[in-house]
Design goal:
Blueprint lengths: L2 E12 L14 E5 L5 H12 L4 H4 L6 H12 L10 E6 L18 E11 L5 E8 L8 H15 L4 E7 L3 H10 L2 E11 L7
Parallel strand pairs: 5-6
Antiparallel strand pairs: 1-6, 1-7, 2-3, 3-4, 4-5
Helix pairs in contact: 1-3
The structure holds coenzyme A.
The site of coenzyme A has 21 residues, from helix 1, strand 5, helix 4 and helix 5.
Length: 201
């Protein structure tokens, strides 16, 4: 069977050395914590973020909504799934009211979801970042960095000391983002994929 191999890096970080104040969420955006009712929302943002990117060739499930939905269900049912490291970023279409009984309240209909990340504790006690994604039209403004820091903060609150992620070597922008936040390459791995794009297990 014809296979192609994608070079990927495992990158790791010491959670005690992370500068959590380095990036802040810009005005007009909110973090939204995990809830099982948000599976479809995470899947939708994941699909919008990944479907035209290199990782949709490496993991075919990232290329369409149904694959992303199945993946989200699988991740959220893992034994080590960590809600505190699993977040969405929402953009407010309008700022919350400043006065009266509705002060500070946000109408869910005024939210557009633009970023997703999930966190899992692996069997060695590492925090594993899963599928950091920002929708294309919202990239380059620091949202990816701030969302990753939010997940790392969740790992630390859960008592973990180290975290890792895997990134496709060709995804140079993402590799740079991870380096900027303090991740370092720990090793290189190769992911075998059938030429038609179906991952080999
Ligand atoms: C990777 C991703 C999450 C980054 O989101 P983002 O909101 O653009 O990230 P930021 O704005 O915080 O970027 C931070 C830094 O990373 C770099 N960077 C990130 N993505 C980049 C890209 N696609 N091209 C060039 N540079 C990129 C920028 O140089 C930026 O550095 P700077 O602060 O010096 O300008 C986003 O591009 C994405 O969703 N990509 C598709 C899905 C994906 O590949 N996810 C990673 C899986 S491992």
């Amino acid at each position: 069977m014809a296979l192609t191999y994608f070079k990927r890096y495992r990158m790791e970080i010491d959670l005690n050395k992370v500068d959590f104040a380095k990036h802040r969420l810009p005005a007009g955006y909110r973090f939204v914590p995990w809830s099982p009712a948000l599976v479809a929302t995470h899947a939708e943002v994941k699909c919008l973020s990944f479907r035209h990117e290199i990782d949709a060739n490496v993991f075919s499930c990232l290329g369409d909504y149904e694959g992303c939905r199945r993946l989200m269900i699988e991740i959220s049912r893992k034994e080590g799934f960590l809600p505190e490291a699993t977040w969405l970023i929402a953009k407010l279409d309008e700022e919350p009211a400043e006065d009266g009984a509705t002060r500070g309240r946000i109408d869910p209909a005024s939210l557009t979801y633009v970023g997703t990340v999930q966190g899992v504790e692996d069997r060695f006690g590492y925090g594993a970042i899963q599928n950091l994604g920002i929708v294309p039209e919202q990239r380059g403004g620091g949202l990816g960095s701030v969302l990753l820091l939010k997940a790392l903060e969740g790992f630390r609150r859960a008592g973990l000391k180290r975290a890792f992620l895997e990134v496709t070597a060709q995804n140079e922008g993402a590799v740079r983002l991870y380096r900027n936040l303090g991740f370092a390459k720990a090793r290189t791995v190769y992911k075998a994929v059938e030429l038609m794009g179906v991952p080999v297990r």
